[in-house]
Design goal:
183 residues; Rna Polymerase Sigma Factor, Chain: A; mainly alpha; elongated
Length: 183
Amino acid sequence: MNESDEKLFERSLQGDDRSLRTLMERHGDALLLYLNGYVRDLVAAEDLMIESFSRMYVKRPLLRAGGFKPYLYKVGRNLALHRAQEHARVFSLDDLELDPEAGELVEEVLLATEQSRALYSCLDRIPDEYREALFLVYIEEMSYDEAGAVMRKTRKQIDNLVQRGKRAARELLEAEGVRLGIG
């Protein structure tokens, strides 16, 4: 049986190292890629990923069902924003390719065809908030409420960012002669 993140977190707080390992296996790589979009440095992103988990264990938040992943990403995002402000960098999907294993996956998924290359290029040209909302909702498969918790936005604001992001990406794609079903 696949235990919930929240149950694993509670067990890990009680000293169960296997639960912590499971949580890191489930969320570590994706969080690393997400954080790397802010700091553009895999080593720094890995440090932030580890610090994100560490801060959760120090704070010991009470989490409702489905609350672990958004809380973890929110902690990571806050750490990355603080670091990014120090280095004046912004979120970018470009850096997903820097991780060797992730690079192969990204290449298979995003760069396999001309259309996906155009989509990838267009995503990099839309506003950062749109790109981040699309990343959280479609790549990380978070609900609008979960993405809102990460980005400190309401559900309606996330909906607006996603809709505007899809519209902006569609317009750029159509300008390049590509038509996709991103409605």
